[in-house]
Write a structure and sequence with these properties.
four-stranded parallel sheet; five-stranded parallel sheet; 14% strand; binds N-carbamoyl-L-aspartate
Length: 311
């Protein structure tokens, strides 16, 4: 049993990822794209390995892209139907996972509405299984942050001169928390956090703005976030129309950013709440490129962790 909860064979958060590994993952995902492996597959690479998707919360792009990434590397994928699993009969989380591990499982991809569940599993699960955090509560979503960094790099190259604005419901966003750490590790020029005071935790780094127009001035990257109603107390819940007025990205607001600014969103999007519907297919908006990068980035993560399992 591995005694070290921070074992590098897991991907639990961005904090624990050495900068060199982060950069290697970005390069390796780009190489996968350049070789066309993310589309055509390279099924010899991880043949005979098994990945189990355990999603205790809803997901479209994250679950599907882990599945496609694994299949394109030749792996066997099992999607556990949590609603119909033995956990409904009262089996504990760890007992369920030990049961799955007994059938041989190299990767457990876990999404959970509670913070630190993937860390807890990683502390208890024996080698060689790697745990990948696919989003825990409001804590972390490391693979999404890596996808976003890859997408920024494809457009902008160097991070050091960039001004990046993260906008919206930052309080409930695990994606934003992981993006902030990744941007810091990549020495980004400036991080701006924009949102209503009650959705913008004071302890987060960056320059804080409660005025969207001021915050967007001359930024290179605009990262929009979904209003996460399912995580809110009723008094946190903004009225949608007035939210869009104050913090929604409209065509005229986009003009405040640099002319070549890119508009991103980890999805799922709420049209006309965070982003004007007419901007979704605007040339500056690269949301579907983020989605497309999900497969090669997750292929790179699986290949990297597999190497650590073998060591
Ligand atoms: C995010 C998530 O689930 O954390 N989406 C994603 O994985 N791409 C953001 C969200 O739910 O708003």
């Amino acid at each position: 049993m591995d005694e070290n909860p921070m074992s590098p064979r897991h991907l639990l958060n961005i904090q624990d990822l050495p900068v060199n590994t982060l950069l290697e993952l970005l390069s390796s995902a780009q190489q996968i794209i350049d070789r066309g492996w993310h589309r055509e597959g390279a099924s010899h690479l991880l043949a005979h390995k098994t990945l189990i998707n355990l999603f205790f919360e809803t997901s479209t792009r994250t679950r599907v892209s882990f599945e496609l990434a694994a299949k394109r590397l030749g792996m066997t994928v099992v999607n556990i139907d949590i609603a119909n699993s033995a956990m409904k009969k009262g089996e504990s989380l760890l007992d369920t996972l030990y049961t799955l591990q007994a059938m041989v499982c190299h990767f457990m991809v876990i999404r959970h509405n509670e913070n630190f569940i993937p860390d807890y599993v990683a502390e208890h699960i024996a080698p060689p299984t790697s745990v990948i955090n696919a989003g825990d509560g409001t804590h972390a979503h490391p693979s999404q942050a890596l996808i976003d960094m890859l997408t920024i790099r494809q457009h902008k190259g160097d991070f050091t001169p960039l001004r990046v604005a993260i906008v919206g419901d930052i309080k409930h966003s695990r994606a934003a928390r992981s993006q902030i750490v990744a941007l810091q590790k990549l020495n980004v020029g400036e991080i701006r956090l924009i949102g209503p005071a009650h959705l913008l935790p004071e302890d987060l780094p960056g320059t804080h703005y409660h005025d969207m127009d001021a915050g967007l001035a001359n930024v290179d990257v605009i990262m929009l976030l979904r209003i996460q109603k399912e995580r809110m107390q009723t008094n946190d819940m903004p009225d949608e129309a007035s939210y869009f007025k104050q913090f929604g990205l409209s065509k005229s607001r986009l003009k405040l950013a640099k002319p070549d600014a890119i508009v991103m969103h980890p999805g799922p999007i709420n049209r006309d709440i965070e982003i004007a519907s007419e901007l979704v297919n605007n040339p500056q908006t690269i949301i579907y490129q983020q989605v497309a990068n999900g497969v090669p980035m997750r292929m790179a993560i699986l290949m990297h962790l597999q190497q650590l399992q073998a060591e």
